[in-house]
Write a structure and sequence with these properties.
The structure is a single chain. It is built from six helices and seven strands. The chain is of the alpha/beta class and 189 residues long. Strand 1, helix 2 and strand 2 form a beta-alpha-beta unit. Helix 1 (8-18) runs parallel beside helix 2. The protein is globular and about 55 Å long.
């Protein structure tokens, strides 16, 4: 095996590839990290997937795409507050084994709350026994419901430890998929 000189972030990225990682979802587009730069070239070489997401809503696209890959019926509806940047944005994603009559649902099964306004606005609507992922990096409260499977995840701290604080939404996505089992983990890798 040839010796190669790599920067620290590049070495971490290469280690992920050699450990079997075949997909990388990155957010945001700027500032570009050395990890994303390296994997944008390396993933195609090993038959993997590199995808840059520009927002939390883009993560919903990833769930949508994973659902399609898994053979699910899928639908989604994004919603933005009037302020756009800095305002509340949310997205309803529906995955089903049956045809979907409408993507509008009154009572979602799961919720990823990335900020307190989202938790306060949507937690009461989640079906009993649903999963609620709470970004404990920004939210210091809970749902106060005992009929939910609630998980507090310090998404910012986990993302920061991985070398890119802007990947916090990917951490939240992974937590939701792992906790709710809405789709098999390989479909988001």
């Amino acid at each position: 095996m040839d010796k190669v000189l790599l920067k620290g972030n590049e070495a971490m990225a290469e280690a992920a590839v050699r450990a079997g990682g075949l997909a990388y979802f990155s957010y945001p587009i700027t500032p570009q990290s050395e990890i994303a730069e390296y994997l944008s070239h390396r993933m195609p070489e090993v038959g993997g997937v590199f995808l840059q997401a520009e927002s939390e809503i883009a993560v919903a696209y990833m769930v949508f795409g994973a659902g399609l890959q898994a053979g699910c019926e899928v639908a989604w509806v994004p919603s933005y507050s009037p302020e756009m940047r800095g305002g509340t944005a949310y997205c309803t994603v529906v995955l089903s084994s049956r045809p979907i009559g409408s993507p509008i649902i009154e009572q979602p099964k799961h919720l990823v709350a990335t900020n307190r306004p989202a938790l306060e606005q949507f937690a009461a609507e989640v079906k009993p026994a649903g999963v609620v992922i709470i970004n404990s990096s920004l939210i210091d409260t809970a749902t106060n419901r005992n009929d939910l499977d609630e998980l507090k995840v310090p998404t910012l701290e986990i993302a920061r430890a991985s070398g890119n604080v802007k990947a916090a939404n990917i951490v939240a996505l992974a937590a939701l998929v792992a906790k709710s089992k809405i789709i098999a983990l390989p479909f988001i890798r």
